[in-house]
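Aim 2 progress update. The chain analyzed this quarter is reproduced below.
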Amino acid sequence: MADGRSGRRGTLAGMTDQDTPAALWPTLDDLWTRLESARTHTGTEGLLLRLLKLSEEVGEVAEAVIGTTGQNPRKGVTHTWEDVQGELCDVAITALVALRTLTPDAQEVFTRHLARVAARR
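Predicted structure tokens:
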């Protein structure tokens, strides 16, 4: 299905691979609001704990990769590549929520940074 703006094939409901899902940033704001309302630590400690959550999620990616490849002989194959994909999504979500914790302008900051990275040669 072609998207009405560019004529390129859409990847999902008319979106191209260059589009951002419309609900991404509002959904991240909702997640951030929910997490903020349930926070048990505030200030610098709360911020550090939110940032450390990213390391936990990256560790879960590693665990899933090890489980997919059966690298732990005691456990064997315990995960699938779909599990790895899900864990990578958790890393991305956690990173964006952490960014939102640092600035209410997370979308702007991310978009500017992504443009700089994409322009690198």
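The chain has four helices and no strands. Confidence is low (pLDDT under 50) at residues 1-15. These observations will guide the mutagenesis experiments scheduled for the next reporting period.
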